[in-house]
Design goal:
By secondary structure, the protein is mainly β. The N and C termini lie far apart (about 60 Å). It has three helices and 18 strands. It has one domain: Beta Barrel (Porin).
């Protein structure tokens, strides 16, 4: 009998130990990045008349600052939070539409709490970066340092409530209700936007129905070999009352030549519908074809990215070295990004 009792107690102890092992311990993490860059034009001035492509970020001449990004996160067994703070020009541009506090030092890029209702359902409430598009705000998650037109003129962030569903091994679904796009601190309009994302094996179809526009977006990519990846993005946005919009597509082939160096290209075609105004030509139905060649060299947590970019518009959108209107702009960027 003593042996049986001893074995039973040992079995119970092992069972309790196994349960403790299976339950992940809560964790608090700090991560982020800092980035800076040098930018120069080949075909346009580099002084007070300096120009840049009509896309977001990396647009300042000479040696310039990106941002410092600090992300605090806590992950418990059932719930957690993310507080993503940004400082610097890139961070200010990322929160441009915050209606009350951007002029007085708002530094919140993302701020949300989540609840893992079950293994297949997660609810998230707060401010989170957009689910549309191939590129994101943080330079650590983009291959190219400068950003595309599709990214720059799609939404940046949303504030609201979303539900993520894991529908099996390959399928996922997200449904959300949010404030008007990029109104991140509160809702000054009383209107709401609705978003959805259907995912399958790394391919995503995204839809956003906003009070002022409708957008549909496809984002995905394929590993064509161990060293060669092809990313794809396509989007269409239509403003209400037939006021215009944009559409376009981009390909992102990337080839890893070694463990520390990868060469990548972004080839993008972007079209304005009517007078959307993104390209800056002042002409209806303008388009631009932009090619960006980027090298990515990794040294521990530091990534160095030299980049050549050529933007060619259908109409005069830039100035040449003689300050004459021209359709193209050639430029160079050298970026340093440190992630921690």
């Amino acid at each position: 009998m003593k042996k049986i009792i001893t074995l039973s107690m040992l079995f119970m102890a092992c069972s309790l130990f196994a349960q403790e092992e299976e339950t992940p311990a809560p964790s608090f993490n700090v991560s982020g990045s800092v980035d800076a860059y040098y930018r120069a034009n080949f075909t346009a001035p580099n002084d007070e008349f300096a120009q840049a492509p009509g896309s977001s970020f990396a647009n300042l001449p000479g040696f310039a600052l990106g941002m410092a990004n600090v992300v605090f996160s806590y992950e418990g067994e059932k719930a957690g939070f993310v507080a993503d703070l940004v400082f610097g020009p890139r961070g200010t541009d990322a929160i441009f539409a915050s209606p009350m506090y951007s002029a007085t030092g708002n530094i919140v890029n993302q701020l949300y709490a989540y609840w893992n209702v079950s293994e297949s359902v997660t609810l998230t409430m707060g401010n989170f970066n957009t689910f549309l598009g191939y590129e994101v705000i943080s330079p650590t998650a983009n291959f190219n340092y400068s950003t595309s037109y599709l990214f720059s003129y799609g939404p940046f962030s949303h504030t609201g409530l979303k539900a993520d569903f894991a529908l099996g091994e390959d399928f996922s679904l997200m449904l959300g209700v949010m404030n008007d796009t990029d109104l991140t601190e509160f809702n000054p309009t009383g209107d709401y936007a609705f978003g959805a994302q259907l995912g399958y094996s790394g391919q995503f179809l995204n839809v956003l129905v906003d009070p002022s526009f409708f957008e549909i977006d496809y984002t995905g990519g394929f590993d064509l070999s161990d060293d060669f990846f092809l990313g794809i993005n396509g989007a269409y946005l239509s403003l209400e009352d037939d006021a215009g919009g944009f559409y376009g597509g981009a390909l992102y082939p990337q080839y890893a030549t070694s463990d520390t160096f990868t060469l990548g290209l972004r080839a993008e075609y972007f079209v304005e519908d009517k007078e959307f105004g993104a390209i800056g030509t002042g002409v209806e139905d303008s388009s631009v074809f932009a090619v960006t060649l980027t090298g990515s060299f990794a040294v521990d947590n530091l990534t160095i990215k030299p980049e050549l970019r050529l933007d060619s518009a259908s109409d005069d959108a830039f100035l040449d070295n003689d300050l004459m209107a021209t359709k193209s702009l050639g430029s160079f960027v050298l970026a340093a990004i440190y992630a921690f």
